[in-house]
Amino acid sequence: MKTFCFFISVIIILAGCSGNGNKSDAYGNFEAVETIVSAEATGKLLSFAIDEGQLLDSGKITGYIDTVQLFLNKRQLEAQRSSINSKFGGIIAQVAVLNQQKETALKDKSRILKMFEGKAATQKQVDDISGAIEVIDKQISQIETQNPSVINEVKSLDAQIARINDLIKKSVLVNPKRGTVLNKYTEQFEVVSQGKPLYKIADLDKIIIRVYVSGSQLPNIKIGQTVKVLVDKNDKENRQLEGTITWVSSQAEFTPKIIQTKDERVNQVYAVKVLVKNDGSLKLGMPGEVRF
Q1: Which side of the chain, N or C, has fewer Cβ within a 10 Å radius?
Q2: Strand partners, 183
Q3: How far apart are CA 245 and CA 221, in angstroms?
Q4: CA 257 from chain center: how many Å?
Q5: What residues does 37 pair with on adjacent strands?
């Protein structure tokens, strides 16, 4: 009888140990860092060659926005500037020459300062080049003071032309990061405005599982730690992957409803992000488990 009871006790202990070994430390869902790419200019979308699920490289041109109106505005501003140049060409030419002299003097000053640091130039050489730059600045200021309206008008036109050039450049849609297109929000030939979302992209090669742990688990968790990540292989088995902890929340929060844990939901927990290399089988929103 004693032998039988001892045998039963051993079975119960082994079963308890086995059960603890199969229990995961945290549960969560897979997510990715998503980027919404928006239009930076306004006009008709003449070309937009992307599809949902398509893998895009960083720097790939994905489309073009019509720039006819921008180009015509630029031509008009350039004509106005040309007219001013023809009337006040001498003034503008003087300022241009002085600015060129100043640019050359600044380069000379940079070289002399390096030589001075290496004790290959004298303090007088540094003072002379600094004085020459001050003289040029005063000459430019004097010309601009005598002809403020002309100079300011030219500067205003230059700024407007630069703005239009920037908008023309931004009318070429360039994908900002490598990733997979998750959602496409607009189609070719639609009229888009500045700031309108065009598509959402995320890098799915490495994705994150966000899990929640209790305060008692925090001492055993640190950034850079390697952990085991489990995902469903079938209705009875799990598949194991390797992950790395990249972030641990500094503030506690209540357990989200989507997390199915053994702990009471009223308990406060800490969010933890685990980075996992995706072999192609992991999908956004998929449930997973983590063992530390």
Answers
A1: N
A2: 200
A3: 8
A4: 30
A5: 199
Q: Is the pLDDT reported for residue 7 higher than 50?
A: no
pLDDT tens digits along 36-93: 999 999 999 999 989 999 999 999 999 999 999 999 999 999 999 888 877 676 777 7
56 in Cβ contact with 62 (< 8 Å): yes
What b-and-e string marks burial along 83-105, b requiring 16 or more CB atoms within 10 Å of the CB?
ebeeebeebbeebeebeebbeeb
Q: What is the spatial distance between Cα 59 and Cα 174, in angstroms, rounded to a whole number?
A: 6
Alpha-carbon distance 271 to 5, whole Å?
A: 45
